[in-house]
Specification:
alpha/beta; 43% helix; 2 domains; TIM Barrel; Aldehyde Oxidoreductase, domain 3; four-stranded antiparallel sheet; 281 residues
Amino acid sequence: MVAPLPSHIVEDAVRNALAEDSTGAGDITSLATIPTDAVAHYELRARKSGLICGLQAAREAFQQCDRSIVFDARISDGDAVEAGDVVAAISGLARPILTAERIALNFLGRMSGIATLTASYVAQIAETGAVIAHTRKTTPGLRAFEIQAVRAGGGAAHRYSLSDAVLIKDNHVAAAGGVGEAVRRAKAHAGHMTKVATEIDTLDQLAEALDAGAESILLDNFSLDDLRAAVAQTEGRASLEASGGVTLDTIRAIAETGVDVISVGAITHSATNFDLGLDAV
């Protein structure tokens, strides 16, 4: 089970999604075809196997359309399902249920797809000691939801925003005049609670980063041999993160080099939508 998101984040995102979908005259199809007092019962079912995430947002979508709708979740976020499994039962007035349907399915499909893909990466590195982390390559406005989905799939949090930690990238290094100088400036600026990390492109920059006191070092597009060399040279003085072009086919070998973290942009920017459907019963 994954921790819920703050309610105001969910409420605002769902409200915006419903507003986008109900401009003008609203849901004219449901208004035209369904009697005002028609009551219906539905089951939300998985169409494939995987992990479910997004129940909080799905519930909110139905509730914002009609507070009397009953949303009975049969599982929790992070639970595994097989094709045909009932995720939730929904009952109430048919019109608002069908108005909310697509928004609920969009949140569930997106987040369950991320959770399922993340779990595939996590399974590939089992017992290596490394962890999978997301990146900031997320859908604008939906980062909190996508990070929640990564956690549901067994992944770890990276940065939620630019203010969470210092992460010196190659352009920062170029502007500052070098890795060591950038790290020293960052440590002088940051408070004692703020972690300072830096990206490096070569092994030559590793000693410079370590000497300047970087607490975490991102090894960008390193070969396997260079990753192993970086682990040996660091000797535990900083956390090492491998990143760049990581795939399901390559991640096991990367994890076996001894790095601490592997960040994978694909788990958010390239996850396939998870197929679910709302069926009348």
